[in-house]
Description:
Largest sheet: 8 strands, mixed
Order of helices and strands: HHHEEEEEHEEEEHHEEEEEHEEE
Helix content: 10-25%
Number of helices: 7
Strand content: 15-25%
Shape: globular
Mean pLDDT: 76
Number of strands: 17
Amino acid sequence: MKSPWQSAALLAAKSAWLRCPESGGVGDAQRTLLVPSSTGEPVGAFSKANRLAQMDQRAGNFARHKLGAALNPRPAETEGRELVDSARDKRTGDIIDAEQLWDLEVVDKEAYECPGCGIQVFPASYRKNINKKRPYFTPMDNKHIQPCGVDGVEKLVKKAKSEKVGTPEGFPVPFPNRLRFDEERPVTAGGDVTGTGDGAGRTRTRANGERSAAYHGHTVKTIRPVCRVFMDFPNDRAQLPLEIPGCPGTTYAGVFRGLGFFGIEAQQPPTRLFCAALRWGSAVETDVYIEWALDAGEWPKGEKRPTRFYKVRVMWAEWTDRQRNTLREEIEIAKDAVKGKTGQPEKAWLFFVGTQDAEDATLFTVNRYPFICCRVGEMIWPRR
Length: 384
């Protein structure tokens, strides 16, 4: 039972919802619902009751979401990361990365659920040019239903920095194992059409309730979630399966190729999923392409600084304005995150499926929008 202050806070939050843009109305949401702008005529009593009930339900959801931590404090056994990096689209069954929200014209706040336990999760921080933090999902009432393969992933990631966390049974959290494009038929690792069954993203539990690592991979539409897993679970790269169109390799370790100051050399094969830290400086931008310099290339022994650098040229002549703006914003958010942090292990890392130019070995070109992203963090390279 809620205390008087909790009830008052909930009521205040619901009242705030009726006045804020997130209610979907303009100005007073209650007036908008009761007197539709299309006709200007009051609605009947039955329709009025239905509209008020819908409004109250949406306001309640919003209020509980905003006050979840206060109204429903998390017990110790469910403590974990409150922010979720991926969610399942209720309509399609696809697991999407939070940063894919950048690509949507309209974000449906009611359309997502936790891929681990199925509770409602809400998208947040997805407005470009407004939010300075990367998008994420946050669970209803600030807690997951246990056991959940997603809750507590922050502790798992910390552990994964120094040891392998996967087992022969599977992986303890959902992970992407194949990149597909919209024109392809969405098939899971088990051969089922995405969204038609339990698929590979559901977790199993043992008889005593202990969570079982039973994730075996799902398909994604961009390399963003793939690159997050690559950075978060360095000691599992050799075992985690991965398939990227046009790239050799069948595991995370086999598909990715890091670029450093090892000299400018011809890559074999020339097309791979490459990664390297970004150099400071502005991009070279035209209507045909945008180009960034990488903090990788040639640093002769005895020299005080590198002499040549690799660069990435993104051929975006056929991209939409939204895709161009998203890439620009993603790079800027990453640069802002590491600005001024000299001597720190965190860097802005550019990931891309690119092809090395046959005549200019310093140049890589990228054509497709899903083939490039930027992430911030410490890159760990386990000893082989």
